[in-house]
What does this fold into?
Amino acid sequence: MSGIFDRLQKRLELESQEEGISPLDLAALPPLLRKIMRYMLREYELLYTEICEWADDLPEAERPSRADLDAGLDALSRQFWLIKRGEGARVRYQANLRRKAGSKLAQGVWSALDNKIAAQIASKASPPSQAGEE
Amino acid sequence: MSKIISIHSFRGGTGKSNVTANLAAQAALAGKRAAIVDSDIQSPGIHVLFGLDENNMQQTLNDYLHGRCPITDAAFPVGRQAGALEGVRQLADKHLWLVPSSINTGEISRVLRDGYDVNILNKGLKTLRRELQLDYLFIDTHPGLNEETLLSIGISDNMVIILRPDQQDFQGTAVTLDVARSLDVPNISLLVNKALTSKYDPNQIRAFTEGTFEAPVAGVLPLSEDMVDMGSADIFSLRYPDHPWSKELIRAAKTILGLS
It folds into this structure.
């Protein structure tokens, strides 16, 4: 039986998935947030210190101040587009993409298809009847 | 640092998978470490060019997405299989991997019905780049715009849009370009395929396309009966390196990938 922590963790994960960013949301972000989010999507998960190193290596014209970078990370975390974990020097961020939605076709359509496929597989697996067997 | 190259077309039938396979093969032939991910989960096909089918495919991207294997187990080393196609065989001692999508009907149906966690796909792309120490990761996508397409645009260093000299392709390419520009893709190039170069000057096609889209054209690939005749049953530029299509493809690969 799962403990309360596990259940809460699962619920949080599900909620965060629903709240995740869709790649098209990127286009609507202000330039600095878009730059951070693009980098995080590429790298998936990074320590805060690694994000700072990346920002420090940007060309001077594109380099955000530490305050702007922190504000950007906070804004993205509030939206659940980044998930912040850990504390102190071990704080890390993970990009959080929205789950790809399943089909909106009626469930019956998929059940019918599943049944057809299963029947087809079963007929392939069973040996063909011999001619003249009957 | 590895580069992510995403290959797109707004419409089907442009030769996107064929071009992707040939670009990646040329990168490997030049000594680079490259992998292709077939993110066209609903209509996969690039595996055919490497001589794979349902029987010899083993693990797929779908197995990874559903937690049945690590993504590196789904990375198939191209050219090393027994009975490899003539062109593909040239990659036996190179470093090219293919992560195919499943062509099992039930697997395709499951993804369409249930969707999947795109974070897992994204994490897998990062793992591949790190674990296989890739120079290039090629992402072959479904035509048009969907989650995988947009993700690959959003994370790519180079985006290549394949189009035919056709009014429908031209309009669709404008849409794809708008999206790519709004997502700040650093390098965008166009590749014209199936051009009627026996009737029209390739330089004029290039100039017209560049003028229309204000984007560089990496190559103008001729419409080729020989290519059609091969029917996606091998990597054309490896099998026929002196063919005009291959020569133009190799030139385009050098431009897009910066190969010497």
